[in-house]
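Researcher: I'd like a structural prediction for the single chain below. Treat it as a standalone chain; there are no partners to consider.
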Amino acid sequence: MKTASRTIEHWDAEDVEAWEGTNGNPPGKAIAKRNLIWSIFAEHVGFSVWSIWSVMVLFMPQDVYGIDAAGKFYLVAMPTLVGAVMRIPYTVAPAKFGGRNWTIVSALLLLIPTVLTLWVMNNPGTSYTTFMIVAAVAGLGGGNFASSMTNINAFYPQRLKGWALGLNAGGGNIGVPVIQLVGLLVIATVSNTAPEIVCAIYLVLIGLAALGAALFMDNLGNQRSNLGAMAEALRFKHSWVMSFLYIGTFGSFIGFSFAFGQVLQINFLAGGDTAAEASLHAAQIAFIGPLLGSISRPFGGKLADRVGGGRVTLYTFVAMIFGAGVLVVAGVLDDAAAGAPTSAQMIAYVTGFIVLFILSGIGNGSTYKMIPSIFEAKAQGRDDLSREEKAAWSRSMSGALIGFAGAIGALGGVAINIVLRASYVSDAKSATNAFWVFLAFYVVCAIVTWLVFLRMQTSRAGAGEQIGRAASPVPA
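Model: Treating it as a single chain, here is the predicted structure.
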């Protein structure tokens, strides 16, 4: 039943009759789809604002703003860090204030970092500390992901969560390449001295996101998620394992999204480009990786729906080892030769990064499929709960973990930018050492995935791979 405040008091996505509308009421799947569409749009704008500084650094020649490449890596890492922290309170916000209500508020909050960015970019003499503070406020956009995912998780039945969450997350993630494309169009058609145009476009889109949420989204009266639920979810070892694995998938996506353009710009400058030429050439390529990573995410979730999240996640990390290996080889060859990277080496750099973007998207989808499956399986072992109570407990636990894992995963993006900065300011003055670190981390992620989720399949009669398909109880 929906009230005048656009609140649906009782929502049960697992009720097939209500979902299909055969009980005489509007089909639940139509309501869920409408909320999903506007959730994607609002989250999309949030991701764009979160990553706005990955574009702004392309408009910041050192001789004008006085900020070198090392300083720019910190500038793009700051919103990642704040966005990770904001995901904790944003996780519980939809249940406390209503999914529709919080989507409106969280969209309008994006006006703050966008206006501040517009102001500091038009005042190049502003102190570096002020730039860092403004970049930190852009982290508000990172919180939108957690509230959006938690909200949509409650709307969809277990059998469709992988696709729905993957689509929601992928549509949000695509905000990264879209704002980079906007930046490219501005640089190519106007100049690399007009960042205010990018900010103005997003002020309009923020207003549209808030208006769409107000007109077309709903609150769920029986949605439950709070800090107590998060604390309970973290009692299970699988919660910590999933959070760690999410560093390797989403952390890679967001970290590379923020850093890719900067790495390209450094290489183009080393090749003799002017600052304007390096900005244009970097912008022409940088959006491709995040775009393909965003597109691949829902397919990772859908594949996990069919064959199991654990298996897809393992194969993804194994492939990411090879992707990082391409970067290592290119870096070693580049370091061994004098002068700027050759065309072949630049192609290898771009190829390695794009492969990692695509795989991180697939891994994002498969890991987020695994989270609700873990608690659905655990709920079936709770004989003290009724069917409705099991469903509510599963939704609450998975919603809480989605936010926590998203926060921990985003810290991987911070680490990527810090490791790259450290690698560039080292004696080697290249990214090769950072590439070795990435490769080693993916090896660890693959081993952990196999030990916890795949090896368990044989040792515990299939329980391991059921995480990702949610058919049997999972040990704590």
